[in-house]
């Protein structure tokens, strides 16, 4: 770490105030310093097994936490695979690895087993890292740490600037990272993303400790590291933008058929589904139920630039949906596994609505008291579930057990249980 970086890291500890942070995020005084080049320059991109073996050995021999980041090609390619992996560790420097030519990084993952990984917004990168064999056993999430510490802006650029006093260029975050060869400015940007990540981690750890929140953060990080891979979403076609306009089951069948056809084409061509056919066009066709290719071509999203063959494949999907029997058509809405939408509570169960109102008021006040977003204090879904079906006995033990049963961490149970006990008791008397 340079003297300037050391000074900047130390200055992050000067966030003043009791429970932060009207001033959290403004700890560094003076104009921030642009960070233009990695300390050791832009490392070469690792594209073969021999070079990868050298990186693995270097990082295994390094010390301290390892900064990890990944770049995807969202909006360009199908899926969320990684197209560049960046790492930095004391004693090893920085590394840029091409997971297209080196698709199995399990050896690197094993070399870093037991090492704390530092990521920013870990849940975004962990799925694509898992695909290439990199799974941390311990982690520190600087974005989540910023939320828990009460910083109003928690993007990596904002955190590095506000905590460490350096400005990161963020102009290449949405580029097509599947491009080969990757341009030098993009590689510089990628290397700089991990340049100060461990420094940021160290400063945030001290700030969380100062606020009495470090144990809370560690519990959150452990929960992220221990979480199993997400289950595939059921009926993903229901997330098509504009679905609220689609009411009839036949129309829902058209959305499903067009979505699934588009997904197969996108997967085969390895392009983002939105580049094959837009959501707005899918909804337009579902509402119109076009009788033929000519009618389909007149709809928005199926214009003059679409060839006859493409139009025929989309019309065939519409026709397949039209031919479905009533029993084959999708049901409107998704099966409800939890409480109804809160707006319906007053009619369905006024007492439950009163409990929820009291709980929300109490949670809001507590979140302000501990200076963090409400959703990080406790999941809103967890609050709804406990209020909709509260324990038979409203006491600290029963409510705490209910919260834990829905996945709340011990620190959340300790803080939120008294608030919910009061709210459930008040709601019962409403």
TrEMBL record:
<dbReference type="InterPro" id="IPR041605">
    <property type="entry name" value="Exo_C"/>
</dbReference>
<dbReference type="GO" id="GO:0000166">
    <property type="term" value="F:nucleotide binding"/>
</dbReference>
<feature type="domain" description="HRDC">
    <location>
        <begin position="248"/>
        <end position="328"/>
    </location>
</feature>
<dbReference type="InterPro" id="IPR010997">
    <property type="entry name" value="HRDC-like_sf"/>
</dbReference>
<dbReference type="GO" id="GO:0006139">
    <property type="term" value="P:nucleobase-containing compound metabolic process"/>
</dbReference>
<dbReference type="GO" id="GO:0008408">
    <property type="term" value="F:3'-5' exonuclease activity"/>
</dbReference>
<protein>
    <submittedName>
        <fullName>3'-5' exonuclease</fullName>
    </submittedName>
</protein>
<dbReference type="InterPro" id="IPR012337">
    <property type="entry name" value="RNaseH-like_sf"/>
</dbReference>
<dbReference type="InterPro" id="IPR036397">
    <property type="entry name" value="RNaseH_sf"/>
</dbReference>
<dbReference type="Pfam" id="PF00570">
    <property type="entry name" value="HRDC"/>
</dbReference>
<dbReference type="Pfam" id="PF18305">
    <property type="entry name" value="DNA_pol_A_exoN"/>
</dbReference>
<dbReference type="InterPro" id="IPR051086">
    <property type="entry name" value="RNase_D-like"/>
</dbReference>
<feature type="compositionally biased region" description="Polar residues">
    <location>
        <begin position="1"/>
        <end position="14"/>
    </location>
</feature>
<dbReference type="InterPro" id="IPR002121">
    <property type="entry name" value="HRDC_dom"/>
</dbReference>
<keyword id="KW-0540">Nuclease</keyword>
<dbReference type="Pfam" id="PF01612">
    <property type="entry name" value="DNA_pol_A_exo1"/>
</dbReference>
<dbReference type="GO" id="GO:0003676">
    <property type="term" value="F:nucleic acid binding"/>
</dbReference>
<dbReference type="InterPro" id="IPR044876">
    <property type="entry name" value="HRDC_dom_sf"/>
</dbReference>
<keyword id="KW-0269">Exonuclease</keyword>
<keyword id="KW-0378">Hydrolase</keyword>
<feature type="region of interest" description="Disordered">
    <location>
        <begin position="1"/>
        <end position="41"/>
    </location>
</feature>
<dbReference type="InterPro" id="IPR002562">
    <property type="entry name" value="3'-5'_exonuclease_dom"/>
</dbReference>
């Amino acid at each position: 770490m340079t003297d300037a970086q050391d000074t900047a890291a130390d200055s992050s500890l000067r966030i003043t105030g009791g429970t932060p942070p009207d001033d959290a995020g403004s700890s560094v005084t003076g104009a921030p310093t642009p960070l233009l080049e990695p300390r050791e320059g832009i490392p070469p991109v690792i594209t073969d097994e021999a070079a990868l073996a050298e990186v693995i050995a270097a990082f295994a021999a390094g010390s301290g936490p390892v900064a990890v980041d990944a770049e995807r090609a969202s909006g360009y390619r199908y899926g969320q695979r990684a197209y560049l992996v960046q790492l930095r560790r004391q004693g090893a420097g920085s590394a840029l690895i091409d997971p297209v030519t080196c698709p199995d990084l399990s050896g690197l993952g094993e070399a870093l087993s037991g090492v704390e990984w530092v990521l920013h917004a870990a849940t975004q990168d962990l799925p694509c890292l898992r695909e290439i064999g990199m799974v941390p056993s311990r982690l520190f999430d600087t974005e989540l740490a910023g939320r828990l510490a009460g910083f109003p802006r928690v993007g990596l650029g904002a955190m590095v600037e506000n905590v460490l006093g350096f400005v990161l260029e963020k102009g290449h975050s949405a580029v097509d990272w599947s491009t080969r060869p990757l341009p030098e400015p993009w590689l510089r940007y990628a290397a700089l993303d991990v340049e100060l990540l461990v420094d940021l981690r160290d400063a945030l750890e001290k700030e969380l400790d100062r606020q009495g929140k470090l144990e809370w953060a560690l519990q959150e990080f452990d929960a992220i590291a221990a979480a199993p891979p997400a289950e595939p979403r059921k009926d993903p076609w229901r997330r098509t933008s504009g679905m609220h306009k689609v009411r009839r089951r036949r129309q829902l069948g058209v959305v499903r058929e067009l979505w699934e056809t588009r997904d197969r084409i996108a997967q085969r061509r390895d392009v983002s589904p939105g580049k094959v056919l837009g959501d707005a066009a899918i909804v337009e066709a579902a509402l119109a139920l076009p009788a033929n290719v000519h009618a389909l071509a007149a709809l928005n999203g199926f214009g003059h630039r679409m060839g006859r063959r493409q139009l025929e494949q989309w019309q065939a999907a519409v026709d397949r949906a039209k031919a479905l029997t009533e029993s084959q058509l999708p049901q409107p809405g998704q099966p409800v596994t939890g409480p109804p939408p809160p707006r319906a509570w007053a009619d369905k169960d006024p007492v439950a609505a009163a409990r929820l109102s009291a709980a929300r008021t109490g949670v809001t006040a507590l979140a302000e008291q501990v200076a963090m977003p409400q959703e990080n204090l406790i999941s809103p879904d967890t609050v709804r579930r406990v209020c909709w079906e509260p324990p038979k006995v409203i006491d600290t033990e029963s409510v705490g057990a209910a919260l834990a049963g829905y996945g709340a961490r011990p620190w959340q149970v300790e803080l939120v249980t008294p608030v919910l006990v009061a709210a459930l008791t008040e709601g019962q008397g409403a």
